[in-house]
Protein 1
Amino acid sequence: MSSAMLRLAAVERRYRTEAGELPVLRGAELEIAPGEIVALVAPSGTGKSTLLHLAGLLERPDGGEVFIGGKAAGKLSDKERTALRRSEIGFVYQFHHLLPEFTAEENVVLPQMMAGVARAKASARAKELLGGFGLQGREHHRPGRLSGGEQQRVAIARALANEPKLLLADEPTGNLDVGTSDRVFTELLTAVRGRGLAALIATHNPELASRMDRVVTLKDGKIT
Ligand SMILES: Nc1ncnc2c1ncn2[C@@H]1O[C@H](COP(=O)(O)OP(=O)(O)OP(=O)(O)O)[C@@H](O)[C@H]1O
Ligand SMILES: [Mg+2]
């Protein structure tokens, strides 16, 4: 029995394209212990986003298995996978993916309400999280009125809203300028370490990767 927070066992993923089958992951293996922060650094097109989507239970692999906290996700129904994802996993995208019609606070409240948290409690937690990312006074702004760095901070707060044990991030500061990227990334790492979360964070930036506990890469569909 593995004590890993995230385990990928012989994970395969193929895409069907006009040119035929494109094997992206061919038996990827990875274990991340509770509290361990791992950087995923690999060239464009090698399958980083694919891997993160599989680990985040947003997609199902064509082969192999994804274990979250020791639980085999492939054996679960869609409903059970959604529940597991909501309770255990936070996901940060490269482009914030915030709901444009909702305020910063509402974007952090919604995932909590979907998990069954009462509105008042969810609002209090959203305010606290946003405050922790320097966004006090901005809670009622819609994403369109926030800077890129602020939008990503809201997206990070949203990912942490349901107190996940695993944080997955796909180039979370990839669309920010160097200075902002560095600041937001530092805040993200501090938040992840402070909460003792396991994390898998894709980045193109070797300096950012060097600040994590371990660096892995993807080559020929395998993790090395
Ligand atoms: N839905 C899809 N249908 C067909 N091919 C896809 C699909 N999604 C991804 N691919 C292909 O799979 C490969 C891996 O894509 P992926 O997005 O995982 O790479 P990546 O490492 O995240 O790249 P980047 O650094 O540019 O974000 C690419 O060749 C891509 O074109
Ligand atoms: Mg990608």
Protein 2
Amino acid sequence: MKNKELLLVPGPTPVVDEIYEALASETRGHTDPRFAATFKSAIKQTKELLQTDGEVFVVAGSGTLAMEMAIVNTVGRGERLLVISHGYFGDRFTPLANAFGIEVDVLQAEWGKQVDPILVQEKLAVNNYKAVTITHADTSTGVISDLDVLVPIIKQAGVLIIVDGVVATAALDENMSKTYGHPDYKIDVVLTGSQKAIGIPPGLAIAAFNQTALEAREALGTISAYYCDIKNWLPIMQEPSKYFATPPVNLIYAYDTALNIVLEEGIEEREKRHIAFGRGIRSALRTYGMKSLAAEEVAAPTLSCMLYPEGVDDASFRTLLSHKGVIVAGALAHLAGKAFRIGHMGNTTAEMLESAIRHIGEVLQDLGLEVNTETAITAFRKELAQIVSN
Ligand SMILES: Cc1ncc(COP(=O)(O)O)c(C=O)c1O
């Protein structure tokens, strides 16, 4: 293992050696047929992962670029977007869409809670929206969206659905062929980044458009975008030896390898593992007197936002933990100093999480709390055993 630290921020996630090796492959020209074959494979595997009948776009950029790509190719200037926000990253769609002259309404949940689906229904009944954004899991709060509830409500209104899977894709099911109670009720766009549950370093923006979303792009005509215009990328995604803008060659090697790993594990198994990790880590940390911001019913399998017990100083906690080689993230906005965020996704293993649980307990002990690391590990293992046996 090349990693010297246990990187448990909610992305980037630990990179496994196989992926580092792919990254370190000899760089080839981006139109070289050998590279084009790898790019083709990566595109094919992305389609397999998301089961889309449409097209996928894999370009150099971060998750925010994928958000932008999803919005500007489906919603036109002066059209209306409804944002369902469970935190900081849901909120990001508002300034992004406003920058393109799109009218935005936002339904913001109290941090740690889900947006009430009735409010979504009410909004859809009074306004004519072109699309709705759903952040599958929000990295600021650790809250997950309930697609089974939201997709039918939005589709009954005939509106496009854009799912932000930045902290969900490759950990949670985002099957774009799945129907939600009616043959036409499907997710139209999934967007994501490379550095979270996919498990490669930051640098790729990935977006999948189904046929309905591709038709929406056609209907827009000329749009205020160039690099982000999927029409410029479509010929390359269909024939990767063609050129529009230079792809990040080595990241594509790594991405293809990462997708081999994901598809080999299988998305069903992967989702099960992530659910077990999420429940397990929260159960363990609760034994230390910590509380998850999100109630268990709405908590994300990929990351958790944990509130400190009384008297724990955020900076001291995270610094001491980093001295033990475990890196977690601070909380955002009004929760800064009161909570921390821990990722448990991608190619993270149960052994890594047990090690983190033990070190977190030791740091709390150093800070004067009476906690028992063995009790915490037992709680973690119990959740894992329950899920694995089902
Ligand atoms: C849910 C979600 N959406 C979008 C983003 C933005 O991605 P990036 O920071 O890669 O631009 C993030 C980043 O953490 C995220 O967690």
